[in-house]
Structures are given as structure tokens and as C-alpha cells.
Write a structure and sequence with these properties.
Blueprint lengths: L1 H4 L2 E4 L9 E4 L10 H6 L6 E4 L14 H11 L4 E6 L1 H13 L3 E7 L8 H20 L2 H9 L12 H12 L3 H4 L1 H4 L10 H7 L3 E6 L3 H10 L5 E6 L6 H4 L1 H12 L7 E3 L5
Parallel strand pairs: 2-3, 2-4, 4-5, 5-6, 6-7, 7-8
Antiparallel strand pairs: 1-3
Length: about 270
């Protein structure tokens, strides 16, 4: 089984089952990031939540973007629903475009399609270098505090203190040196611009964003003109829908498991 070659969590099928699920966490995340989503699903097939490189167990990590994507492609089961959040969404998009109709559906939560401008790529490379250096030279706790203060995560501050504390504890369990991989190898500056591939592949893709996450919502909305791209938006929340709106993410995974895709729609969320 894939989980034997790629450490993570393998959740057995629940209830009536369904297609296998492959769920990729974000930067500073963990397989447990998907627990609340899985709990909200009425039933699901076997769900594999792997550790992404640079996170979790100290294992050899891919040394470039293409290798990271290919490792994921090689592990994907047939007819799976592939979902990723943020960093996981970027890797999921690249993998989905390589495997084509092998997948039942692809959900990209807070996903980016890559930078198409050289100046923007150079600017992001400089920022990623600063962040990687902070991880390599300073205490992880200071980095996590600064990360959580980003405007992208502002709505999370209204969540219950226990939930925020649990997320911080999971983040602090990582190795700071290993986490630098997320910027040096899999950072946005290292990711190719996948817009041309999205257009050429004509492959069904579902982007999901928080309505208050203006940047990522705009990226997704720009792609909805393509008939094979859908965009689901959750009101009242920003970037991390796994934390702020897991039931909404679960509903979309359930729809993709049933082979359904809906065009742009704004949902009401119980999240902050």
C-alpha cells in the first residue's frame, strides 16, 4: 500500500466507502490537518494523508520541484480524489496535470497556479530566501509566531484558543532545518507557471477559497472562464479552510467523490 512507502496517516474507509482519497497538508502542517475534514464526511473511501517533504519523519527529500511532484504521481492510486491545501494544493495541481484522467477529482484549497511574471518570481525568490534563512538561523517558535501574524491568517484569531494552541503545537513539532525545504525547493518561486498546462489539459479542477482571502479568490476566479475549472468560495474566512471551515471542505470532497462538480458558488460557513 502507498502508505508503506510514504509515511503519513492511512484512515480506513468509513460507512459506505467510496473512491480513495489522497489529502496533502500545507506548509507547517501535518497529516492531522485533515482530521476535522474527515470527521465531517458522512462516508469515505480509504484516506491517505502523507507527510510532505520537509515535514514529519526525517526522510530523504526531493532536491527539486519536478522530483517532488513525480514522487507524488508515482504513489497516486487509480480513481482517487486528490485534495491539497496551500503548499499541498500546488503539489496536487502539478501532479493532477501529469496523471490526467487517472483521478476521480482534484480539489485545490487555497491553491496557486504559479507565477507568470519574471519580476514577481524574482521578488518571491528573495522573500523565500529570507524565510528559509530565518528557519535555518533562528528558533522555530519565533518563525511560527511571525507566520501566524501574516494577514492571510487573520480570521483564525477568532477561533477557540484550544484550537489555535493545538495548531501551534503541531507546528512547533517540526524541525526548522527540514522546513526550509518548503521555500528552497517547493516555494512558489520554484513552481513553474501552470496556467498554460491548465488550459491545455482541459482537466476538471475545483479551486476552493475563503471569501476574505482576496488574493487566492482572485486567482481562482480568473480561471473560472475555463469550462473545466470550478470555484467554491466560503464566506467569512480566509486561507486555511481545513482549520476554519472543515465541513465545507468535506462537502466538496464528497461531491467530487460522487463525480459532481459545480460552477462558482459562495457557501455560508460556520467559521469565523
Amino acid at each position: 500500500m502507498i502508505a508503506g512507502r510514504h509515511p503519513g496517516r492511512l484512515h480506513p474507509a468509513k460507512g459506505a466507502g467510496g473512491p480513495p482519497l489522497v489529502l496533502l497538508h500545507g506548509f507547517l502542517g501535518a497529516p492531522s490537518s485533515w482530521d476535522a475534514v474527515l470527521e465531517s464526511l458522512p462516508h469515505h473511501g480509504p484516506a491517505w494523508c502523507p507527510w510532505l517533504p520537509g515535514h514529519g519523519p526525517a526522510l530523504p527529500t526531493p532536491v527539486h520541484w519536478d522530483a517532488a511532484v513525480q514522487a507524488l504521481v508515482d504513489a497516486l492510486p487509480e480513481d482517487a480524489v486528490l485534495a491539497g491545501y496551500s503548499l499541498g494544493a500546488r503539489l496536487a495541481l502539478a501532479a493532477a496535470l501529469r496523471v490526467g484522467d487517472r483521478l476521480r477529482g482534484t480539489l485545490l484549497v487555497g491553491g496557486h497556479v504559479g507565477l507568470g511574471d519574471d519580476a514577481a518570481r524574482a521578488e518571491r525568490a528573495a522573500l523565500d530566501a529570507v524565510r528559509a534563512a530565518a528557519l535555518r538561523s533562528g528558533p522555530l517558535e519565533a518563525f511560527v509566531v511571525d507566520w501566524e501574524a501574516l494577514p492571510l491568517f487573520a480570521t483564525q484569531r477568532a477561533l477557540p484558543a484550544e484550537l489555535q494552541a493545538r495548531q501551534r503545537a503541531a507546528r512547533l513539532a517540526h524541525d526548522a532545518q527540514a522546513l526550509a525545504w518548503g521555500f528552497e525547493v517547493a516555494g512558489l518561486a520554484q513552481m513553474p507557471d501552470l496556467r498554460p498546462a491548465v488550459v491545455a489539459a482541459r482537466q476538471p479542477l475545483c479551486f476552493m477559497t475563503g471569501a476574505r482571502d482576496e488574493r487566492f479568490s482572485a486567482l481562482a476566479a480568473a480561471l473560472v472562464r475555463l469550462p473545466w475549472v470550478t470555484h467554491r468560495q466560503v464566506s467569512g474566512v480566509r486561507h486555511n479552510l481545513l482549520l476554519e471551515a472543515p465541513a465545507d471542505v468535506a462537502r466538496q470532497i464528497h461531491a467530487l467523490s460522487q463525480g459532481r462538480q459545480q460552477k462558482h458558488e459562495t457557501e455560508r460557513s460556520g467559521g469565523a
